[in-house]
Amino acid sequence: MTTGTLAPSAATFLDDVLNRRATPCGHDVDWSDLGIRDEGDLLAALPPVLPFETSGSTGGPVIRWRTRERLVQEARHVADLLAVDPPDVFVVHAPPRDLHGLLFGCLAPALLGRRARYARPDDPLPRDARRPLFVAVPSTWSHLRRSLREVRGYERITVTHGTGPLPEAAPAVRRAVPRLSLLDVHGSTETGLIGTRADGRWDFTLAPDLAFASHGSAAQAASPSPVPLVVRSTRIPADGDGPQSPEHVLAVLVTPTGPRTYRLAGQHGDPVGSRGQSAGLAGIEAVLRGAVPGVGLRCVPVPDPLRGEGYEVVVAGAEHDRRAVVAASLRALPAWQAPRVVRLDAPGGAVPVRLPSADENDS
To answer: Which of 73, 141, 144, 287 has its CA 20 to 30 A from that of 134?
Structure first.
């Protein structure tokens, strides 16, 4: 690659990510120099267990411990998925210390022996790549739209995406770049990889080591009614110090379309996402009401042009009530959970509330 600085070694970079929980941006890492020939080699490069923190959408954040055996098992699924037509370069915008960024941005490139570029979403695109895969965050799309000349020069480009709405810039990029493929990834910190969906398809396919827990038979899977997604897998991590759980109920409704395929049909509750994390609006409302007793308010989901989805807080009261809710939002909520605006429940202006910076890849 012509951009970035070659990291001292893949091993050093992996140590920074895993042990120091750092995200060194601006580096190119050649994962082939780690000498990974198979899953056993990758196991030897990882610590026995790694913690991953949930977003805390239904209370405080929960630590989920994942053993290296289960991480490698999951990384093997991702590498096999990409090995059919492998990218020549991984461009990683998702933080590698998060599960999605680690699997798609570090462990899969290690198993495939590929080079990866760790960058902020607004860093220059690699000019000598031919078939890059972008391990994306929502603001990746805005940068791709600003860089259409470079993007059109790629033989093929693949962009990972979660299950939330595509950002406002995505349709324009996809129209302008017919060779762009979308890889939808359904997953969570609790379960890891759940399913994937290739560009243009409706149905997700379960990861190879997952099965429907409550509707596993073909007859039940053909049911047209949405049901809660309950999956069974040996790699579902434990809650903190709790025992290993064989299955997990997710805050999502699905319509099963076959023994191993499903379509997303909605959400339990009202989560909205940002930076790969989801927040339940009912939980946010409870926090804000506790911070400003006596003030009527509600959280309303709205589209967000950069991140795809967000929410506003609507206040039933006077201007001083609205200001109090703004102050409470800044004081009581993590920055990534802050609403787009706080407004009165009447026509009029809105008070902006800070959001995380457009650079969604913390250094």
So the answer is: 73
